[in-house]
Structures are given as structure tokens and as C-alpha cells.
TrEMBL record, chains A, B:
Name of this protein: Serine decarboxylase
Primary gene name: LOC112280260
GO biological process: one example: carboxylic acid metabolic process
Keyword Isomerase: no
Family: Belongs to the group II decarboxylase family.
Length: 557, 557
């Protein structure tokens, strides 16, 4: 469960550029240059206009790798080389628990102590929420109307559809939410089974377990950019697992998939398909994967597909048709064929889908939705004597508040509300990409994604302040509904400033991240974005973001 | 994951004596007879006084089995015969999600609809909380001071001791809580590892997984009264699992354990030890189990013990020394030797302990504490390449509010507060037992437990109203800090009333539950409690609750 001794031992390691350092980071920066916006981007501003305002700069600085950086992959995505993380001994900074002074009453002193701890904590949360950019959590929610429920112990024990005798539950809300997802993913009410989970990981653990129970000797195939919980599941469940290569975009490499499926043909296949990978926000091409399965000769009874849609599974359906569809929904394959982006629907032979609830929707605590076919849960019940448990969930006792949060937001926003949010996120993500490119920072943004990948900043205090998730030489910002253009402006200005400060006399050396984002997106002196520098003889220029049809392999460098 | 087709199919089955029926149950009952108390039991009333007030009645009614009852084991404990449960199609009663009317604004109508749904729901929760008796949840908490935190998305991503870059976390509280448990369970700060889980099940899943990783070919041994998640874990993890018999009390039968450990001696042993079983609240004798392991020849490197202390793991340490210890802490073995109850401490060779946070402590949503030795997590990291994940938790994304709830209550109550709560629970549980016995209802209460087991009532509406957890012919009530004597009085009065109504002309036939609770506790005509009716020739009378030393097997009947 932990990859190396030295990594597990980081709890006692002293690598701590503590988050409080952020306070020392002076924000005496000039105001945003040409564009000063106070909140969000007006709906009517088109991307093309944006591009006109913010021309992509081509003149990069002299190339250099940032060899002195301690890389962390705190986002936990799978990577073969071992990385260190920022770790520290939490015992010292923890809020200790002390015995009340008197036998019967909590003393005033204790009350005051607790109130002051909570007040300081609240203040720090407010501050941290303000600067957060690196994780895909929508911090913009208001559940004030639900605070009246906080003093109930709401527990959806076991199966959502089998009522337990415990009365203080919220199954009415849970099933309402599930029915909404049934419409979204096109399964009839009597054909689906699902539940509200504690997080995306529980969804993956459940989906892969259902797959294993349906196909007990199946091999798990997942791209190396899959969330680490997918491989954790394989180990937990003692399944054979095969890692599949990815394209530069982070999308699964279907050439490699085909090769590996062919090798493992003797056994059934359980596939994890990513709708938005953790680090690069890449969307695996479900339709192409289905074609590959057919081509290799897997019939529908010999494969099971779990769709991990943690973040983007809830955004993709709301990309508005019209202005946006040509750019974001349709993909052009190498052969020139235009096809729809891989829609997630149970009209295709998929087995399960999971999404997170605290990401795009926003929720005080992690939660998610796990969704599968009733027939799989039924088939489990035929094959398996599960020891008198009719509980097909993983957790058993389940947070009954989470479904009410989801129910509340789904009701208030509806499809149209989500559409607006998604549009704003995609637009703001493009805005961020353009501003970074303009600042000669290597940057990549996948189609259908609001996850902006860029060079990992060298300044650890800056990373902590903006809570960037990093992996190796790259970091990312995830543009959620709570991320405004103003916030992005502040971020970019500060990044430019700290970048200058990291080098003597502001002579910035741009790191080469071509292996992570491709020649078109790397801003180092050798590549200078869009590849204006000639490549070595015989090497073909490949763009990471426009590679469609999933038939190009990793760019060589 | 589901035990039988017909059980999984219960979502569409129409067996629904709906909870609303409870409203139809008239509560025009006479006031409590001799004892009228308004709230709680004064601290100074001793059990002996109680017994004097409430003499145990011996004159049972004519014996009969309740063959017409649909048995449910909604509490999910392991039972070999398949049971039906109350299930219903939840789609009909769910709160549907509808699209907002306008594009931009939520209409007043929608607002009003949602407010009315929430108001009705809140009312029903208040009502249901009032009558709840069957599940071990302390509904008595006030986290008003923490409502200021509800609008933050607090997520303790991954390991509590490895800080992630996401700033909106509550690790300071989490580690404070864990340090408190380190003192309770006697492990040094640098020797433990743990985290706040989503529920007791996650604790069991984690503990057993750690056991399997430490001893990969170990066989899992657990009593048949263990929580179903223990056997679910074995199936999930593809482990060999052996079910061990239990005594009538629900405690693990160490004679059977010894036999089975001897049979499986070639492989290491992973043991689940219950501190409070789900149905009967029985405490497995940890010390005796350790002796058995030694006797059979298992050295410490060849076994791993996970302690499932879901409910009573947090109560047992607070049983007050003094008045109570002779009765509750010390146990007298058959040989007459008096020994201490099995204290849970890491000074003994145990591997992990899990407890629930929403049970005895009380919390708006399920949560728990999982605790293990640092060396096990370290040994995992040596043996296992866990694919770049340094996250040794199961869930990854974790509810950051739960640790703050726990921190708040631990600070306010402290050891002494818990002691008071535990004493009141044990006293009230004895009060309930005496009142039921007086009413000629078969009843059993284990030492060290506040779980009162009794005949399953025949009236389904009554079961639903009081939210009793049932298994086969028995039901139980769990006396938590939120359960007052007044509530127990109301419960008993009503039970007597519905019991009479279930039989023509009030001629109550008492079911025989001797197989579940033993002759001393069964009130049927054959056994009549404490066994005043002679038994068939040659059959030895065995008491379920006084069987100590763990060397008596199940009573034959």
C-alpha cells in the first residue's frame, strides 16, 4: 500500500516548507496588465476574442531542466519512478485533546480555548479556499438551507433499495439522485443499481470488484495515467493487472492496448476507462476501445468496462451543443473522419460508471456516485453466497448527508446550470492557458478538459500557497466553477514574479517538459512552444493536443 | 456481495409495512406502572435497588414458536440460513429531481417545493430519532459550534501524516484525535499509524488487509457472530476464511477456535476479535485467544489480530473502576479463577483496532478510527511496490469534518465524561432487561454490554416504529447515551400492549428462543426464564450469560 520505505517514513522527515510560509510571500505585485476583470468572464466573450487579446508569445528563454526541485506527485497518479513528497511530522502541529478540568462542567477556559482554535481554523480555511487552484474541487457552494439537518445522525445503512429498520436515513434523496443519473446515463430505473459513495475511490473499488465478480479470472487493463486507486484495487483483490501506455495527452494508447489485449486473450478483460485522468484531464476514447475489443475478438460476455469519470464524467455531458460542439465534442481522426467524443451511456456495453460528487458539484465532504447494471448485482447474488449479507455496497454504513447535498444542487442547478458552469470552466481554462503561454510558460490543455498542465514552479512556497498538485516536472491547475478570471490573473502575475525571483537577475531558464506535454507545448529554448525550432533530422514533429484518432504513439525526444 | 437472487430482488418486492404505519399505532397506553421517571436514572440508584423495585417474574405463558413471522436480519450479522428482509421499491417514495423552470433563476415555486421537502424531512427525522432504539448510535450530540465549517470542502486526502498540497484539510484535528487513541491503546506516537475512516466497516477492511499483507498466505479466523464486513473482506481479498462457532452469549468459542487453528496450523492465522458483537454485544476473550494461539504453537510472527471494537471498543475502557469493576470487569472462569476482562492494548500482540465514531461518541455521519502499528505500514512499504501510491488508507479522499466532530466531543467529554455515559448506558440497559423480564419477555444481556437481546416482536409496525434490528427470532435494543429511562418505559409499555394485541383475547404465546439466548433467558412455557420448569431427563441446564472461562459449548435443546 506504500511504495517505498523512505516514502512511508516521510511522516517523520523534515522537508517542511510549511504552509505558513505562504504568509511570507509578499504579494506586492503590479495589477493585471491589459485585462482587468473583477469576476468571471462575461458569457459573450468568445475564445477567439480572447486569443486576440492574448497573443501566444513565441520567444522562449534559454532551455534548462530544473534539476534542483524536489518533485512530488501529491496527486497520487501512477508514475513508474518514485517521487518524494512534502511530508512532515503532524504530531507537532496537531490540536491536542485535553481532559476537561472538572467532573461535570466544561470550564470557561476550555470553551474559550476550543472557540479560539475553531476561529483560527476557520480563518485559515477561508484563506486557503481563496488561493486553492490545484485540486478539482468546486468550493463554490451554499448549503445553508441544509444546516438544520446537521444535528441528525443520518446513515444510509447498506443497500439504497433495501430499507433497513434504522429510520434516520436519506434513501428518498439518494434514490432521487440515482434516478437523475439513470436519465443522464440512459438506463431504465429497473435496470440499474447504484449508491452514493464516500468518494471516487470507493466508486473505482466497487466497479472493479463488480467486474472481478462477473469475470473472476479477468485481467485488469488500465492506462498508466489512471488514478492510483485502480491499481490499488487490483492489489487488494488479487487480480492480474496490466498497465497500458498513454499518449502525451494522457489518453490511453489504443495501439498498446490492442497489443496487450491480444497477449492476454485467453482470459477475459476488465478495463478501466478514464473520463478525465487525474493529472492531465485526458479522456480515453471509449468508442475506440470498444472497436479494439471487437477487433481482437472479445465478445461482450468476455469483457467488463468500468468508467472512472471522477471529475469530467459530470462535466462532459454538459458541454453545450452549438458554439462549442465543433471545438469540443467532435474529434477529427487522422483519416480525417469527424466523430463524436466518446459519450458515456449504458446503451454501450459498459458495466459501471463512477463520478465524484465533491468535485464539479461541490460538497463539504468527499462523496460520489457509483452506478452499475442491476443484472451484474443480480448475477453476483446467483454466483456468490455472500454470507447472509444483502449489502452490495463496500462501506455498509454510509453518510446520509451526502445524498441531500447532491439532491439540493442537482435540483437548484439542473442541466442548464451545469451547462453554464461547464462553459465557464472551459472558457476560463483556455484563458489561463493563453495567459501562461503569453508568459512563455510551457502549458498544455486537453480538449474537453479544464485541467491546465504547466511547468512545475520552482518556488515551493508558491506551490503550497496555490495548492498545486504536482507530478514530476509538471503541475496543474483545475479550473472549477469557483475559479474566477480574477483569481487566475492573480495567479499568473504571481507566478511570473516568483519565476523571475528564482533566477539570478531575473534571467529565467525555462525547463524542458517536452516529454510531459509535447513539442508544441514545451516552452524551453529547444522547443519554444508550437515548435519553431527545427527538430533533429528524421524526427517527426508531433503535437500532443491535436493527436486524434488515437493512433499516434508517444512523441520521441 | 448479495446472498441470494430473491434477496437482491427485494428492491422491487412489495413487502412494505411502510414506516408511516407507525403513525397509525395508537399510543393510548397507561402510564408506566410503579416507576415513573422523567429523564435518565439518578446516578445514586444501584442495580440492586432496581432489582428490588422490579422483581423478575417467573410465571410464563404457554409456549409457542412464532412461525408466522417474516424474519429479517437487517443488522446484517452472519447467519447461515437465508432470511428475508423488509424491502420496498424506493423509486416511488424518492424525492425527484426536476429541472429549474428558468434559465437563470431558481423560481420561487421551486424554492418553496424544496423548503417544504426539507421541512417535512426534518420533522420525520425528529420523530424517528425520538423512537430509535435498535441501532448503536448515540443521537445525543450538539455540534452547533461547528456549523461555521459546513461551507468548506474539507478533505484529508490520503495519509494523515503525509501532508498533501490541498490546504483545506483537518489533519491537525485528525492527528490530535489519533494521539488521544494512542494513549488509550498504549502505543507511542512514533509507533502507531492510523486514520479517521468513513465507518467501522472501513476499519475492518483495512485491518484485515494489513493482516493479509503482513501474512500473505494467512487464513482468516472469525466467529460466526462477527460483523458481515469481516467475511466480505475475506471474499474481496481472496483469502481463505474459517468461521468459528460462538457460545450462546455470542462470544467466540475458544474450544472450536483451538480445533480449527490446529487444523490450519500449516499456514499463518489472521484473527478477527470482536469487542462487542453486532447482535448480542458479546466480547471475545482476547487473553484466552492469545493463550490458545500459544498452546497450538503459533509464534507472534505467525499470527495477526485485528480487533473489531466498533461499538464497545470505545465503551469498555470507561467502565468505572470501583462499584462496577467486580461486576463488569472481572470474570470468573469455570475453575473459579477471577481474571480481568480482556483489555484492548497494544502491549499485547495485536495488530490493529478499529472503532466507530458515530456510535458511542455520536456524529452526524458515520465515521471511525483505524489504528495499527507503524511497523506494519513500514513492512508493507518494504514488501510491496504499491504503484507510486504512498497512501495507505483505503478511501484516499476522506471526510475532513469527521475528525473535527470527534476532536470536539473528546475535548468536551474527556475520559470522565465517557465514564459517566458508559455507566448510565449499562445501568439503563439493566433496567430495560429487568423490565422485560418482569413482563415475561425472553431477554438476555451480556456482561460488559448495553445491547439488550429479546424476543422479536410479532408486530412489524412496532419494529419499524422503534427501529429494532432483528435477526431470526430475536431483536435487540442498544442502550446509548441518548436513550433515557422514560424512553425505555414507553417502549416496554407499548411492547406489552402490542404483544397482547397480537393474540386472540390477549392470550399471549411466548415464543421459545432458547437456542438464541439459553434456558435461563428464554421465557417460553418450557423454560420460563431462569429455568423453573424441569428439563427432559439427562439434559443439563446451561446458562448463557453466566458461562465464563469460555469452555462451555452451545446449550443443546
Amino acid at each position: 500500500m506504500v511504495s517505498a520505505v523512505e516514502e512511508a517514513a516521510t511522516r517523520c522527515v523534515t522537508l517542511p516548507p510549511s504552509p505558513v510560509l505562504k504568509a511570507s510571500l509578499k504579494r506586492s505585485l503590479p495589477p493585471p496588465m491589459s485585462l482587468v476583470m473583477t469576476d468571471g468572464l462575461p458569457d459573450e466573450i468568445s475564445l477567439d476574442n480572447l486569443k486576440a487579446v492574448l497573443p501566444t508569445s513565441k520567444n522562449g528563454e534559454s532551455g534548462a531542466t530544473n534539476g534542483n526541485v524536489k518533485y512530488g506527485d501529491s496527486h497520487g497518479a501512477v508514475k513508474s519512478n518514485k517521487n518524494f513528497v512534502l511530508g512532515r511530522d503532524m504530531h507537532g502541529s496537531s490540536f491536542k485533546i485535553t481532559e476537561p478540568d472538572h467532573d461535570d462542567e466544561v470550564t470557561g477556559e476550555k470553551d474559550a480555548y476550543m472557540a479560539s482554535v475553531l476561529a483560527r481554523y476557520r480563518k485559515s480555511l477561508t484563506e486557503k479556499s481563496k488561493y486553492h487552484l490545484g485540486y478539482p474541487y468546486n468550493l463554490d457552494f451554499d448549503y445553508g438551507a441544509l444546516s438544520q439537518l446537521q444535528h441528525f445522525s443520518i446513515n444510509n445503512l447498506g443497500d439504497p433499495f433495501i430499507e433497513s429498520n434504522y429510520g434516520v436515513h436519506s434513501r428518498q434523496f439518494e434514490v432521487g439522485v440515482l434516478d437523475w443519473f439513470a436519465r443522464l446515463w440512459e438506463l431504465e430505473k429497473d435496470e440499474y443499481w447504484g449508491y452514493i459513495t464516500n468518494c471516487g475511490t470507493e466508486g473505482n473499488l466497487h466497479g472493479i470488484l463488480v467486474g472481478r465478480e462477473v469475470l473472476p479470472d479477468g485481467i485488469l487493463y488500465a492506462s498508466r495515467d489512471s488514478h492510483y486507486s485502480v491499481f490499488k484495487a487490483a492489489r487488494m483483490y488479487r487480480m492480474e493487472a496490466v498497465k497500458v501506455d498513454t499518449l502525451l495527452s494522457g489518453e490511453i494508447d489504443c495501439v498498446d492496448l490492442e497489443r496487450k489485449l491480444t497477449e492476454g486473450k485467453d482470459k477475459p478483460a476488465i478495463l478501466n476507462v478514464n473520463i478525465g485522468t487525474t493529472v492531465k484531464g485526458a479522456v480515453d476514447d471509449l468508442d475506440l476501445i470498444l472497436k479494439v475489443l471487437e477487433r481482437v475478438g472479445y465478445t461482450e460476455d468476455r469483457f467488463y468496462i468500468h468508467v472512472d469519470g471522477a471529475l469530467f464524467g459530470l462535466m462532459m455531458p454538459f458541454v453545450k451543443k452549438g458554439t462549442w460542439d465543433l471545438r469540443y465534442i467532435r474529434k477529427k481522426s487522422l483519416s480525417g473522419e469527424v466523430h463524436e467524443a466518446p459519450k458515456v451511456t449504458f446503451k454501450k456495453p459498459i458495466g459501471s460508471v463512477s463520478v465524484s460528487g465533491h468535485k464539479f458539484i461541490g460538497c463539504p465532504m468527499p462523496c460520489g456516485v457509483q452506478f452499475t447494471r442491476m443484472k451484474h448485482i443480480n448475477s453476483l447474488s446467483r454466483n456468490v453466497e455472500y454470507l447472509a449479507s444483502r449489502d452490495a455496497t463496500i462501506m455498509g454504513s454510509r453518510n446520509g448527508h451526502a445524498p441531500i447535498f447532491l439532491w439540493y444542487t442537482l435540483n437548484r442547478k439542473g442541466y442548464r446550470g451545469f451547462q453554464k458552469d461547464v462553459q465557464r470552466c472551459l472558457r476560463n481554462a483556455h484563458y489561463l492557458k493563453e495567459r501562461l503561454r503569453e508568459a512563455k510558460i510551457g502549458v498544455m490543455l486537453n480538449e474537453l478538459s479544464s485541467t491546465v498542465v504547466f511547468e512545475r514552479p520552482l518556488d515551493e512556497a508558491f506551490i503550497l500557497k496555490w495548492q498545486l498538485a504536482c507530478q514530476g516536472k509538471i503541475a496543474h491547475a483545475v479550473v472549477m466553477p469557483s475559479v474566477t478570471v480574477e483569481k487566475l490573473d492573480n495567479f499568473v502575475e504571481e507566478l511570473i514574479e516568483v519565476r523571475k525571483r528564482s533566477f539570478p537577475e531575473g534571467n529565467v531558464k525555462i525547463p524542458c517538459i517536452v516529454e510531459e506535454v509535447g513539442v508544441q507545448n514545451c516552452a524551453c529554448s529547444l522547443h519554444r512552444g508550437a515548435g519553431t525550432i527545427p527538430l533533429p533530422k528524421g524526427e517527426k514533429r508531433v503535437s500532443a493536443c491535436v493527436q486524434n484518432g488515437n493512433s499516434i504513439n508517444r512523441a520521441s525526444h
